[in-house]
Write a structure and sequence with these properties.
This protein has 2 helices and 11 strands. The chain is mostly beta strands and 178 residues long. It has one domain. Strands 1, 2, 3, 6, 7, 8, 9, 10 and 11 form a 9-stranded antiparallel beta sheet that branches. A two-stranded antiparallel ribbon has the order 4-5.
Length: 178
């Protein structure tokens, strides 16, 4: 089967602005998602894939490399508590109640706004994700740095963003295989 991919929707040699790679967390329910964007006030954040790589050399001197499945993680530091931030309120509630098992019940939507057109962009919905607050405090403002661990239980599709509202639509079976 031929490989399929979506071409990058930018003029030749134009670099993709960081704001075109977006991450949302569902602070609603799976039935009625309420997507809150991650990264407000964060100056630098990258998705780390965290593959384990092992290379061996056989008796013929040929190198063989094995790569594990990705263990994607997004670190957000600083992440300051702000008015109207429902994710911070939810995480603080989980920490106050010591309900650590609830930290692994998030849905995270990755949207690639440089892949797609108009207001519909390629996206992946990860379910069963873990969001871990690292600390609480700071000097001038109350910060709560976060580590977001994606589950790899994902559904490919498109995210439509209109007037700040996000809607995810799963791809058909033929679109998501490849």
């Amino acid at each position: 089967m031929a490989e399929t991919y979506t071409a990058i929707n930018l003029p030749a040699n134009q670099k993709a602005d960081r704001k075109l790679e977006m991450h949302y967390v569902n602070i609603g329910t799976s039935e009625e998602p309420e997507w809150e964007i991650l990264g407000y006030g964060v100056e630098d954040a990258s998705m780390s894939y965290n593959h384990d790589v092992s290379t061996t050399v056989d008796i013929l001197g040929i190198s063989h490399t094995e790569v594990s499945a990705a263990k994607p993680q997004l670190d957000l530091d600083p992440y300051n508590i702000r008015g109207g931030d429902k994710l911070s309120a939810k995480l603080l509630d989980i920490e106050r109640r010591n309900a650590v098992s609830e930290l692994s019940q998030f849905e995270v939507l990755n949207v690639h706004a440089f892949l797609g057109s108009g207001s519909a962009f390629n996206a992946e919905l990860h379910t069963g994700c873990t969001i871990v607050p690292q600390s609480l405090g700071g000097s001038s403002y109350v910060g709560m740095p976060l580590n977001v661990h994606l589950s790899n239980q994902k559904t490919l599709g498109t995210a439509t963003i209109t007037s700040g509202n996000v809607t995810f639509s799963p791809a058909s079976a033929s679109e998501s295989s490849g």
